[in-house]
Amino acid sequence: MTPATPRAPRTRTVFISDVHLGSRGCQAEYLQQFLRQIDTEQLVLVGDIVDLWSLKRSRYWPPAHQEVLRTILRIARDGTRVIYVPGNHDEDLRELCGNELAGIEIRRDFIHQTADGKRYLVLHGDDFDGAVTFSGWLKYIGEQLYDVLLCLGRLVQWARRRCGFGYWSLATWIKEQVPDARRYIERFEHAAAHAAQRHGLDGVICGHIHRPGIRDVGGVRYCNDGDWVEHCSALVEDRSGRLGLLFFTGDARLIGFAGQPAVPAPAAVLDVAA
Ligand SMILES: [Mn+2]
């Protein structure tokens, strides 16, 4: 009998954050489909995975959210290295940093080295809230209003689906219209890039502001993996060490890659090309 040849996973690393399990904004079904399709050496959870703030306000834990947790545990059990960097919405878990739980390493932050030897600071990103002067949209509209926006957005999305349209986020669209929101994002990007620079690193990988992006800022690379509330996005490192952004919604499937440099063939990363 010939032993099965061990097959290399399709991607080296998948980074996701701002899932907000336990809150109504979480796009758990899309995430569940995404997680079931990835085949990766490492999965990094860059914070705000479980929304403990929201759970403290009201108990909301539908089966789809439990299913996402189960899938993450299964991924860890099946041999993928899983690292969890708690964010501000799951900061109670920061007490566990330095430990391993159900095969998941819990870290406050760490340095990720890509296959081509570049070194990135990985952290959630709320660390930069102090550096970002709060004239930004976060304070501007506040978390409560953001929840209302997301709720309205779900209604719009429901109507769009019935009419056969693809995924679209109301909250994202509104933020595009607010100049303050754009300034806030810019300040955040600079603060994050500066942290990487100070440590002599090639870049930073974070989440927190629900704004996926890959940009060169001040000589280092700024990567934000986005969120699973508005964008359904992930940052993906392919086997050669290139980083790309991936957008995933169940009905529209793989929407596309963005960022510099883009991973050339999305279908090679996820088996979702129709
Ligand atoms: Mn956050």
Description of the structure:
With 274 residues, the chain is α/β, with parallel strands linked by helices. It has a single domain, classed as Metallo-dependent phosphatases (Purple Acid Phosphatase, chain A, domain 2, 4-Layer Sandwich), CATH 3.60.21.10. 32% of the residues lie in helices and 22% in strands. Bound molecules: manganese (II) ion (MN). Manganese (II) ion binds at residues 47-48, 87-89, 124, 126, 208.
CATH top level is: Alpha Beta
Shape: globular
CATH topology: Purple Acid Phosphatase, chain A, domain 2
Our count of domains comes out at 1
Structural class: alpha/beta
Number of strands: 13
The H-level CATH homologous superfamily, spelled out, is Metallo-dependent phosphatases
Question: Which keywords apply here?
Answer:
7 helices, binds manganese (II) ion, eight-stranded mixed beta sheet, alpha/beta, 274 residues, Purple Acid Phosphatase, chain A, domain 2
